[in-house]
Specification:
Elements: H1 4-23, H2 27-45, H3 48-58, H4 62-70, H5 75-78, H6 81-95, H7 100-113, H8 118-134, H9 138-151, H10 158-170, H11 174-191
Helix pairs in contact: 1-2, 3-4, 3-6, 4-6, 6-7, 7-8, 8-9, 9-10
Amino acid sequence: MYHKFIKLIIAVGTITYAVYQFTQGEIGNGIALLLLSGVFIFLYFKNEIILLAFLRLRKQDFVGAKKWLDKIKNPESALVKKQQGYYNYLHGLMVMQDNMNDAEKYFKKAVSLGLSMKHDLAMAKLNLAGIAFSKRRKREAQQLLTEAQKLDKHGMLTEQIKMMKQNMKQAVGPNQHFGAGGSLRSQKRRSK
């Protein structure tokens, strides 16, 4: 993996040499070098390691995705801001089943850093809503769920959002039950 600034330096050097090739009449070499510099510019914005980790996750290979992400030693300096968001997003997806507290930290950091695709941001907020709901923070879960629904413009998460809403309606937390029982007991005392 190349550092993000090395990719830019290589791209600028390649473009410079392409311009030189154009001035020498080597049009084909210049075009090829411009295409090559485009690859480095693309990899500046879309990190190759993160792309490979995404491919592993699509195949449900969590171990393989973790191996790829572990190759990024210092994400703060090696990745641009959006790539850091995806780095944390992928870590959150991988640890979701094992450790909800770590997953929540990763998803919150991913949301704060930003994700370039609205669908990914909606998915992160949906996962955060599920975590908040499992920790009995219903109001926060509802807020995150409505944010996820607003971000899901193409309806890719409609079923998951609908299921989450149904689960939230069906679940009666112990605090709600205790509160209702407490008010009934106080009403009985007043009537005596």
